[in-house]
Amino acid sequence: MTDRPATGSRHVVGAVDDFPAGSRRVVKIGKRAIGIINSGDDFYAVLDVCPHELVAICEHGAVSGTSLPSSAAGEIEYGLEGRVLRCPWHGYEFDLRSGDALFTSFRGRLRTFAIWVEDGRLVVDLDARGGADRQ
Amino acid sequence: MTSTTVILETGNGPMQITTVGDLQRVQRPGHLDDGDERLALFAIRLRLVHGGKGPARMPEASAQVTADSGACVDADLLVQLDDLVPGDPVEGWLVFELEQGHRPSQIRISEPGGGACRFDLDPAVRAEIRSFPSWLTSTDASA
């Protein structure tokens, strides 16, 4: 296991250059397996556990967009490109920003963590949810 | 495992929390690129029923697990707790990792502005093994 510099709940997971656009890597922070995802537009940090059946979701899951609800029959709108993580097993889709399952009554939530760039390094805060403003 | 129910007093009224089914030991070999095999992933399913009078939210609820070794670790609740309706149950997993060979003995759930509740678990009770199809856990992309 790699030791990662930490200040309280905040952990440096590596240099930004180690996580190029389109990359996904699972790192260990403390006792948690955290998936670090660079969608090209943004960084995301999520617990590597699907809230549906507990499979590791990051390594074999797909990061993409999804079909959005449409009010007109026969029309399909595609959106949220780069913000959706799809589980490889049953296809559940989760918003990488909020962790919410998309367009389903399923009440599971992907655990998200705040992540940001600081001095060329990626920092994850295990006490703050993704999408939340950094303190 | 015998189902256990506790009451968590939240800022929005009481929340009934019940364990559902057996403790799960999740087997996911090879899922980490820095492969740490010293840790074991556990999960227990919880059913939460909001007993207040109006809609409630408790997104900042947190959980900690104490192992039979005495070590305490943070746990993650994988369930949406933003729009709780009185009497409408929601179910989700509580997941945590412990050192290999150890078992959880206590789960503590708390909410800022509210209280805390505790489940006592019997570390002697074996967890149900939860495994997955090999293609989901293999690090070989062609598998």
What's the short story on this structure?
By secondary structure, chain A is mainly beta. Chain A is 0% helix and 43% strand. Chain B has one helix at residues 134-137; strands at 5-10, 13-26, 39-50, 62-67, 72-78, 90-99, 104-110, 116-120, 128-130.
Folded structure, characterized:
The complex is a heterodimer of chains A (135) and B (143). Chain A is mostly beta strands and 135 residues long. Chain A has no helices and ten strands. Chain A has a seven-stranded antiparallel sheet, with no helix packed on it. Chain A is globular, with a radius of gyration of 15 Å. Chain A starts with 5 loop residues before the first strand and ends in a 10-residue tail after the last strand. The model of chain A has no long low-confidence stretch (mean pLDDT 88). With 143 residues, chain B is an all-beta fold. Helix content of chain B is 3%, strand content 49%. The longest helix of chain B has 4 residues, at 134-137. In chain B, 31% of the residues are buried. The A-B interface holds A 1-2, 25-28, 30-33, 47-49, 51, 53-56, 59-60, 88-89, 100-101, 107-111, 126, 129 and B 24, 26, 28, 31-34, 36, 38-39, 41, 43, 59, 73-74, 76-80, 90-93, 95-98, 130, 132-133, 135-137, 139.
The N- and C-terminal alpha carbons of chain B lie at a distance of 36 Å
Helix content of chain B: under 10%
Number of helices of chain B: 1
- CA-based gyration radius of chain B: 17 Å
Going by helix content, strand content and strand pairing, the class of chain B is: mainly beta
The topology string of helices and strands of chain A comes to EEEEEEEEEE
Largest sheet of chain A: 7 strands, antiparallel
Shape of chain B: globular
Helix percentage of chain A: under 10%
